[in-house]
Design a protein that fits this description.
The protein contains 1 helix and 32 strands. By secondary structure, the protein is mainly β.
Length: 422
């Protein structure tokens, strides 16, 4: 502190500006294929593309060409789905589904009359895709054959809204989330399990459906089948916090995997946003945990119940867009901190991180940024309040006395502040 100059609060020169921190690439929607290739959505200004980092290394390349990629429901998300040798994406401009072959560099438009679609999900055997569709009046989950020129057909309907269509590994069962007016998905939604079959004419049909979790006053989201096909995991706030559960498909046993007072998901304003996943051998669940605006990576052993945090090599304080490789235990995340612009990284079970893509040149030193501290207090009516306090900070200046306090309150029913680069 002795070598710092004295100047009143509010008059410190700073290198932080719109010019030095703006113009970031928007990185999101990480996904892997069975070959170990990594895909993600990359947005610059109003144009979004799908980028790919091949498992064998080499240059990152765009696989979507000039197509502006983007899901057409909610506030975004669910822009593409990945199969073994193909990607199914939503063309934001035409609103149609396009099949892309990353290896061949070819693309084929599969639909012509869709209105708004999101969350295309390719079946394990690769011949059919599910996706959420809305014509402005009726939402439904549709099935689309990928090998032949056939029109998509509604498979699941009757609810007002849908999210998270999921395939069982044997392609004979599907899971999904639904909710109805006047509810929103973070206060009342339902998880369903359906049996599907291929009819004589070749179209996919829903044979039966069962309610697994959720209902009045309960929010459920992100169903995931285990790779061995024995479990259907999901997130529920029935306990008061979004906790991870596992439902055993054969016995009907329901296990709550997490139980500490923390959030294990984010409010589903977006389609297909993930926060956990099974290891390829189905023995573990890796997940993100949000405590006091800081999000960390954890792992839970299903057999013994042991839970441990995976400490990353870098000091990231916010992690998002979780995706685990189906062929290894490598996890892809969008990671940032208050002094670190977002990066696309991969993480090993030991916490070793590899940076795949940076959102900026990161030319500004971390020493210029204030690091937030979690704080809490109680209102006069005994309501607890939590916040992030950014103390005055400048590597070259200091001031005497107490600084002015600027209080920023988030908007909306579910908004919150995170320890991310902002």
């Amino acid at each position: 502190m002795a070598d710092k100059k004295n100047r009143p609060y509010g008059q410190w020169p700073s290198q932080i500006s719109a010019q030095t921190t703006g113009g970031l690439l928007d990185l999101s929607e990480t996904s892997w294929n069975m070959n170990g290739d990594l895909f993600w959505l990359e947005r610059e200004s109003s144009q979004a593309s799908i980028q790919m980092a091949a498992a064998e290394g080499g240059e990152i390349r765009c696989i979507s060409g000039s197509i502006n990629v983007g899901g057409g429901l909610f506030y975004g998300g669910g822009s593409f789905g990945v199969g073994k040798n193909r990607v199914l994406l939503v063309d934001k401009d035409s609103r149609q589904l396009i099949r892309v072959s990353p290896q061949k560099g070819t693309s084929t438009r599969l639909t012509t009359s869709l209105i708004n679609s999101a969350s295309p999900t390719i079946s394990p055997e690769g011949g059919t895709a599910l996706f959420v569709h809305s014509d402005g009046e009726q939402d439904a989950i549709y099935a689309l054959p990928l090998e032949e020129a056939e029109s998509p057909q509604p498979l699941i309907s009757g609810a007002d809204f849908y999210n998270y269509p999921r395939w069982h590994p044997d392609s004979g069962q599907v899971g999904w989330i639904s909710w109805d007016h006047p509810h929103l998905p973070w206060n009342t939604s339902r998880l369903w399990l359906g049996m599907v079959e291929t009819a004589q004419g070749g179209e996919l049909r829903l044979r039966s459906e069962s309610l697994i979790a959720g209902g009045e006053g309960i929010s459920v989201l992100q169903p995931e089948f285990s790779p061995d096909g024995k479990w259907l995991a999901y997130v529920s706030d029935q306990s008061g916090w979004w906790q991870i559960h596992c439902y055993h498909l054969a016995s009907g046993e329901d296990r709550q995997l997490t139980d500490i007072p923390a959030e294990h998901a984010l409010p589903p304003w977006l389609q297909n946003r993930n926060a956990y996943g099974f290891s390829p051998d189905s023995k573990r669940v890796y997940f993100l945990r949000n405590q006091d605006g800081h999000r960390s990576l954890w792992v839970k052993e299903l057999a013994g119940g042991e839970e441990s945090r995976i400490h990353l090599e870098e000091g990231y304080t916010w992690l998002d867009w979780f995706s685990i490789s189906p062929g290894s235990e490598k996890i892809a995340l969008i990671a940032s901190a208050s002094d670190q612009p977002p990066r696309l990284i991969t993480v090993s079970p030991s916490g070793k991180t590899t940076t795949i893509r940076r959102s900026s040149t990161e030319g500004l030193s971390k020493r210029h940024f204030s690091i937030p501290k979690p704080i809490s207090w109680t209102m006069p009516n005994d309501t607890p309040v939590k916040g992030l306090f950014y103390p005055p900070h400048n590597p070259d200046y200091q001031a005497d006395g107490l600084p002015p306090l600027l209080v920023m309150i988030h908007s909306g029913p579910t908004s919150q502040k995170f320890a991310e680069f902002s």
